[in-house]
Amino acid sequence: MRTFGAFAILCFAVSVTAQNSVSDLAANHATALENYLSTNKTLTFRQEHNLSDEYLKSVREWFGRTFKPNYAVGDFNRDKIPDFAVLLYREGKPEPNVESNEISEHTPDYPLRLVVFNGENRGFRVAYTFDLMGPHAAFIRFEKKLYYGIFETDSDTFILAPAGRGYIMEFEKPR
């Protein structure tokens, strides 16, 4: 019985932090994303299992055990209504980003789309989309600002700052 209890706790812990399907998002976010995906057939949900377990463990040691690399939640535009963002896969072929055939969390780059959903009184609206290329190690995170980055590097990092009903991309200045 003790083994079953430990197994159940382990399964629950994995399901709390895993991002394996749209249904792993908050219910109202999942509904908004499913509606978006239904009209954008060339996009697919980006599962976190593309990162090795060891690499994902390292990412979560840095950002916290519940960190979801392709899903961020917060009040991005400071209107006191929660917003969310997702990183999705776009149709297309990966491109090498180094002079190597090695495959890792950092190479190759895959076609991605960053989508920001602003919360409104009765749901969400797409406030920003951006197509980019990024490796499996690409992530989004909200910590006072909405960041896009690549874990273990400073390359391609940017912030999305609210601007009118949308967002603009800002790059951090070197220190």
What are the SSEs and their pairings?
Elements: H1 2-17, H2 27-38, E1 43-45, H3 53-63, E2 71-74, E3 83-90, E4 110-120, E5 123-134, E6 138-142, E7 146-150, E8 158-163, E9 166-170
Antiparallel strand pairs: 1-3, 2-3, 3-4, 4-5, 6-7, 7-8, 8-9
Summed up:
The chain is α+β, with helices and mostly antiparallel strands and 175 residues long. The chain contains three helices and nine strands, in the order ααβαββββββββ.
What does this 3D model show about the protein?
The chain has 175 residues and is α+β, with helices and mostly antiparallel strands. It has one domain. It is built from 3 helices and 9 strands, in the order ααβαββββββββ.
Keywords:
disordered N terminus, four-stranded antiparallel beta sheet, 9 strands, about 180 residues, globular
- Structure class: alpha+beta
| Helix and strand element order | HHEHEEEEEEEE
Taking pLDDT < 50 over at least 5 consecutive residues as the criterion, the unreliable ranges are 1-16
Sketch the major β-sheet: 5 strands, antiparallel
Rg of Cα set: 17 Å
How many strands appear in the DSSP assignment?
Answer: 9
Helix count, DSSP H or I runs of 4 or more residues: 3
Average pLDDT metric: 85
**Helicity, in percent?**
10-25%
